[in-house]
Design a protein that fits this description.
Radius of gyration: 18 Å
Bound molecules: zinc ion
Largest sheet: 3 strands, mixed
Strand content: 5-15%
Distance between the termini: 47 Å
Order of helices and strands: HHHEEEHHHHHHH
Helix content: 55-70%
Number of strands: 3
Length: 248
């Protein structure tokens, strides 16, 4: 059940998000917007008994994520400012996500379907953690305002709604978002490798994506084609293997 404190926090965040704006979007707005959305998703999942049910699985994900978040804090000063949070969810439609400010949600059916090893799960988590550490949400909002400057007059929530649901804006942002996905793949692999995971084992995640994808050569709306992601990951793993592994 939400505490009074969290209810007041959400109310004050919501007031901030509804306020009229006449300026570029700020990091604080994006993180506050993500907090409201994440809290709603977590509360909904909890009410449907879909949240953090499997303590063994939750502990496994938390253990792997902890090492990666520690590495992200070393690599990206901004990651030290986030209130990182992780939940697992039983919803079969949920794969994995990380909202601005370090709010992770990992779908247990997705991880089970792909039969991810610990290294492959580390790759998935590292990809998601990169989205927060590289402030991809914030950059997407900035890009949206660059594409459609008139939206600077919208409230933050109107802009957020447009980024998620306005078909024209979504297709205008498609290439930008695919580039962010590729960046999360490659920077995620580099970070997991720095955190001690063997590069070749991380590649296994992309191989499994290809195995479960019926259109491996075609780009998805927000993701590059899975065959292309696997190829880029194999190439990076070869490069990393030529470098002395950290701690060796
Ligand atoms: Zn992603």
């Amino acid at each position: 059940m939400p505490t009074l404190h969290s209810a007041i926090t959400v109310c004050s965040l919501t007031l901030l998000l509804f306020a009229p704006r006449s300026h570029a979007v700020t990091r604080d707005e994006v993180i506050a917007g993500a907090e409201v959305m994440y809290r709603a998703r977590v509360t909904e999942a909890q009410s449907q008994y879909q949240l953090d049910n499997d303590q063994v699985f939750l502990a496994r994900v938390q253990r792997i994520a902890a090492g990666l978040i520690a590495q992200a804090k070393l690599d990206h000063p901004v990651a030290n400012e986030f209130a990182w949070e992780l939940h697992v969810i039983d919803d079969p439609d949920e794969s994995a996500s990380c909202m601005a400010g370090g709010k992770l949600l990992i779908g247990k059916p997705y991880v089970n379907k792909l039969e991810l090893t610990d290294a492959e799960l580390a790759m998935l988590l590292s990809h998601e953690i990169q989205h927060a550490a590289l402030e991809h949400n914030f950059k997407e909002f900035q890009e949206a305002l660059k594409l459609e400057p008139v939206r600077q007059k919208s409230s933050f929530l109107e802009l957020e709604e447009a980024i998620d649901h306005d078909e024209t804006l979504i297709s205008e942002l498609s290439e930008f978002n695919k580039a962010q996905e590729s960046e999360a793949d490659l920077e995620g692999m580099r970070m997991a490798w720095r955190a001690g995971w063997p590069a070749l084992k991380l590649v296994g995640y992309f191989k499994k994506l290809v195995r479960t994808d019926s259109m491996t050569s075609f780009d998805h709306r927000d993701h590059p084609a899975s065959a292309r992601r696997w190829q880029a990951a194999r190439q990076l793993a070869d490069e990393l293997n030529r470098i002395k592994a950290p701690g060796d």
